[in-house]
Amino acid sequence: MSIVFQNPSRIFRLETHNTSYCMQIDSRGHLLHLYYGSRIGEGDLAALYPPADVSFSPNYYSHRFDRLASPDILPQEYTGCNVGDFRLSTISVTDAAGVRGADFLYVSHEISPGKYALNGLPAAHDEDKEAETLTVRLQDPVTGLGLELLYGVFERQDVITRAVRLANHGNGALQLHKVASACLDLPFGQWDLIHFHGRHAMERQVQRVHLADAIQTVSSTRGASSHHHNPFVILCDRQATEEAGACCGVMPVYSGSFRTDVELTQNGLVRLVTGIHDDGFCWLLQPGEQFAAPEVIFAYSDQGLGRLSQIYHRFLRHNICRGPWRFARRPVLINNWEATYFDFDTEKIVRIAEKAAGLGVELMVLDDGWFGKRNDDNSGLGDWQVNTRKLPGGLDPLIRRIHALGMKFGIWVEPEMVSVDSDLYRAHPDWALTLPGRDPAMGRDQLVLDLARPEVVEYLADCMTALLQEHAIDYVKWDMNRNMSDVYSHALPAERQGEVTHRYMLGVYSLLERLTQQFPQVLFEGCAGGGGRFDAGMLAYCPQIWCSDDTDAIERLTIQNGTSYGYPVSAVGAHVSACPNHQTGRMTPLETRAVVAMSGTFGYELDLNRLTEAECGEVRAQIERFKRWADLIGSGAYFRLVPPDGESDFTAWQFASEDRREALLNLVVTHPRANPRSAHVRLRGLDPNACYRVDELVFAAGSDVADARHEGGTAVLTRGNFSGSFLMHAGVALPHLFGDYPAVQLHFVQVEGEKA
Description:
alpha+beta; Beta-galactosidase, Chain A, domain 5; TIM Barrel; Immunoglobulin-like; 3 domains; nine-stranded antiparallel sheet; globular
């Protein structure tokens, strides 16, 4: 049993393979958090919290004379509001008289096999029948607001999920002004906060800061998880490294506006609260109604940041992603966007596809501009009818020609948006989010459709269903190219306008659920101006997400490095693009671009007809290589060896298979020097007692001179065997790598029948 309730102490113990999570119902009926960390044996956890009289921390009424029990000091599993805990709160609720207050007391609990589900929200699934669920029921005796705390324990995977359900058991309406998904109180240790900030085309930049005696916030009010702050955060010991130290990950399964606050309190306790952003949020809960807050995935490791990342990678692949594509190798694709932008017709697309098919590409993706009056980004969104001026005869003749080449066919859509210059907007202007009496703010000259309205979801479901039913489409790139402003639904009454942004996300999830269930064979890729909605919520429907609109390989090193802390490589949309790069103007060797893009789903975004014969030969070899290594890259353990933080002249990362029989070392020189030091790296994740050899070595540089200067040095790496312990402790030293952004790939395999 991974969940145990102990009497008479009334302690809950949630155990995974390597962690313990402990709570206690105290004498007053409050649920206290006692411990989350490395797995522990028996002991008096309550003794870790000796009673104390702390000045200006009010006491429970029952302790008004001894003053030794304060809601402001005790570690809480889920707080009330306006009852004496001045730290971060999880909830804010008012009744019909405007009285704000809630104090949740224990009612009952239930331990059940399997994993709970959340109506209308993505959540981890349990297809392997591994999980157990703990449901703890509490209630505020005054308002009648019932609280269910849900815990999913995945013992083998070292993961605990948490969610919240509220139910109005009272006689009057309640207004929920804030509903967090989880509270985590960590009473011991010196912690750093790692979060992932950025902007468009520069997503998920790693920032690590000491916790201050303050409240530190990571959030988005954009109606999306955003390019600017990813929902995933890590609390780690100040001495934690990739290979050692305590690390706690907190990952909301949500794609809308979110808020995570971390407070270092007066007694040294760290409190983290995460959930839907409360800016403008207000949910009217009538008697008998329920409200579910999004799920949060917790993981803990005392073996460093690398191990924590691997826990999340495996869990997201196995228990968040769904359908036939979650473990399958994704087809190598060619996307026409950077090759043509809006300027294309059937023949131009076919010429790109013909060249690509001859080089081994498996999927042709037709990007923006195939529908409505769509010759730029100022019109056409919402009118999902084929533009027959560009595509005479419609999509089917093009699709037949693509399929005749032995390729799959994919298409770009942006269903959540509408152009003012569109038939849809002219027919239904009230279907867009706009403020009455005000000119709306415009993003890409488009507005956000009100997916809080069921009729809008139905319209989009009909359009997308017709598109996928009537045409042989194998892949859908689902884009979303502006954030949410002018938030007002013309269909909701005044008292429910605070529900719009969350109802919008419920509409998006409902739409994606219907389509992915109806068309399981279609591979859906998420996109939001690149990586503006790269989160666990979207991965429940789209097993891969376009990582960033910045396709520059050197910039992608930083973006993909930050992404790797929480999200698996199999989810990272990555392409080889043209040079000079369209975003930065940088020139990077074709082979280096491929090395970087291989740490993702792998594809191309350029006109292959413009490449030389020699370059086409490189492309063919890259595709063959990726196919050989796809299982290792997609499901192997990922290691950040040398990060792109500027402290080294190169970036290095590695994959190791689960059985430790093969490994792939990748290295890119980001700062070539005239008199460089050797690039030295130590591998990880190998069998120390096994022997390995290099069976493939790939070198990329920017000139023939560079090739000639490197050949003698790297040849030594392909001679002889190396023990796993040698590679992990002594490591590998590469010769001087010359040229513009040279790159190396070394593929190691175990030598059969030999031991170190």
